[in-house]
Amino acid sequence: MFLDFWTPFKLAFDLLLSSDTELMGIIDLSLKVSLTAVFISLVIGMPLGAILASKKFFGAPVLIVISNTFLSMPPVVVGLLIYILISRSGPLGWLEILYTPYAMILAQSILVVPMSIALSRQIFETLNNEYKPLFTSLGVNAFRRIMVLVVDARIALITIGLACFGRAISEVGAVIIVGGNIRHSTRVMTTAIALETSKGELAIAMALGLVLLSIALLVNIASQFLRHYFKKAALDV
């Protein structure tokens, strides 16, 4: 019994050390999809978060409610909505991206954008309230306000980016609906783990699980290192 318990772990390490081609392909696609989705979500989410925090305009409360709603929306529901939109009979069916990595990037982006908006808005709102008297007295325009907030919040924004990446790469529900978990095409780590576990192929599932855990560990180490580095740089200045 004891040996049987450790067998999947041993086989998993053997697969990783041998750089199994299929395994490496799954890891590579996972990283490409998630990094692209995070980049898109940060490009969209952080400016929106800064605008919502620093400017009061008609419709701002509605945008906040919508972003917060998507923040708590189940991934499978998001995946279903995207599936309906990009299916052959859907309004975006002409794009022909269903069951492709592009559909998976779209799904992860939609899931992570609200997180990017909500977290960055909180950071920017705190800083804007702190600097508001100074901005008003100096007559700083909206664009320069946002730039100042971004520079001053750079440590927190890096942490937000890493948190968004952790959220994206661990997603399974939405990507399996719009990606289809097709071998050598749209199979990523989370969907492969679900599939291999259902097949009883625990070695491959465990290998991918170890990679995901390693990525989570590296994300946390990177977050701590960057926070320490920027704090030290700020003190030196």
UniProtKB/TrEMBL annotation:
GO terms for biological process: transmembrane transport. InterPro entries: ABC_perm_TupB-like, MetI-like, MetI-like_sf. One of its GO terms (cellular component) is plasma membrane. Residues 27-223 form the ABC transmembrane type-1 domain. Keywords: Membrane, Transmembrane, Transmembrane helix. SUPFAM superfamilies: MetI-like. The chain crosses the membrane at residues 33-53, 60-86, 98-119, 155-182, 202-222. It is a multi-pass membrane protein. Its main location: membrane. It comes from the Bacteria. The keyword Plastid does not apply. Coiled coil: none annotated. The keyword Repressor does not apply. It is found in: Cell membrane. This is Sulfate/tungstate uptake family ABC transporter, permease protein. The lineage of its organism: Bacteria, Pseudomonadati, Pseudomonadota, Alphaproteobacteria, Candidatus Puniceispirillales.
